[in-house]
Amino acid sequence: MARKCIVTGKGTKAGNSVSHSHKKTRRIWKVNVVSKRIFLEDENRYVSVKISTRALRTLKKKGLKAAILDNGGSLSAIAPKKFVGVKKEVAAK
Predict the structure, then answer these.
(1) Dihedral angle at the C-alpha atoms of 78, 58, 71, 82, nearest 10 degrees?
(2) pTM (2 d.p.)
(3) Which residues contact 77 (CB under 8 A, 6 or more apart)?
(4) What's the Cα-to-Cα distance from 64 to each of 5, 45, 90, 93, rounded to whole Å?
(5) For residue 47, is it within any domain?
(6) Domain contains 91
(7) CA gap 18, 14 in Å, rounded
(8) Would you place residue 44 in the very low, low, confident or very high pLDDT band (cuts 50, 70, 90)?
(9) Is residue 37, in this structure, part of any structural domain at all?
């Protein structure tokens, strides 16, 4: 899953580069993705995510979970695979 934003889902795009004479050659546009450690206040832990720089601006405004839900993503994308589906057990008295 290289070069894909976890929040917006943006990835590499392909198209044509058009010269002055309208000669077309194939090219790609890569999304500007950075790796960041973001603190989740309600879970009291850090999460490492690959996120586009454009989505970083949205995170400062809304927060990670709200930004993912607004873009139609799922929250399981930010949880490590070893914690997905694991529930904390309550100690019986």
Answers:
(1) 0
(2) 0.65
(3) 6, 68
(4) 12, 13, 28, 36
(5) yes
(6) no
(7) 13
(8) confident
(9) yes
Structural domain range at position 51: 1-12+29-71
Q: Per-residue pLDDT tens for 66-86?
A: 887 887 776 766 665 555 554
Q: Is residue 20 part of a domain?
A: no
Q: How many CB atoms lie within 10 A of CB 55?
A: 24
CB 53 within 8 A of CB 24: no
Report how far apart, in Å, the C-alpha atoms of 88 and of each of 83, 84, 85 are.
10, 11, 10
Residue 50's identity, in one-letter code, is K
> Amino acid letter at 86?
V
Cα separation of 23 and 78, whole Å?
Answer: 43
